[in-house]
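The following block was generated as part of the benchmark described in Methods. Ligand: iron/sulfur cluster.
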Amino acid sequence: MNTEIPKSYLTEVFSSLQGEGGCIEGSCFGKRQIFIRFSGCNLSKDLDRTSSCFWCDSLEAQSFKNPIAKIEEKPGLRRFINVKNPLTPPELADIINNLITKDLHSISFTGGEPLYQIDFIVFFLGLLEEYQIRYPLYLETNGTIIPTQEQFYLIAKYFKFCCCDIKDRSSNVAKKDNWNEIVNLELEFIEKCTKHYINTFAKIIVTSETKIDDIVWISKKLAEIKGINRKGVGLAIQPVYLYNESLKNKYAISADHLNQIFYTVADYLSPTNISLSIQAHKYLDLL
Ligand code: SF4
């Protein structure tokens, strides 16, 4: 029997305001969070068949065995110290406890893909009470790693919120002809979260190449998910944000196109379940 204590490979841990999600059930937009950015992503390019999202802004988190994690020294200081990976559960608990401020709303598990290290996460959840970490948890996931029933049970006990990506075909995350396999997994993940009473919403990043037909298909499928208390599941629509000028010229979405996407989604979802999401932290130069 393997009794080794799981350890985590992290890219960074810091305190900031949640800049995404918009005005939608399950979103923590504008709330103070501690962000734990896990390393590794199952959709990154070293895996067969996939090539990673072209807009991925956490490239360093795509690689699993990062030797170093950057830890914010004190909340708001924006100064980082380097610590050696992997980190033990008590080391991570100390880091979290050191970043708690009185406005803290929740703790975000992000990445990379946090569930790529699901064994560590499940183990860590079991220790939260011992470490006196009593904040709601927020999961930001690509939704393509489906936990087992047992793992879901623990996840649902601690994660109150979940933002699950729906990858647009233009993300290049999969070859165009198996893109819908990825979306089907994400939809399955969202449905399972809501069945476990995790307040979950879907987020899609849209670009100039987003196809209205794909939005119809996704919206129809999302509309089939009953959600918590039969309120359905929300969709946060996020225009792609790019730094690179030539990519921006190619992929930035026009206002007309964005409006068309909203009108299309509204054929299937109620207006309460549709929201714009922007990466406000980037506009405000927050961490
Ligand atoms: S799923 Fe997330 S971490 Fe992975 S390639 Fe896409 S944007 Fe990057």
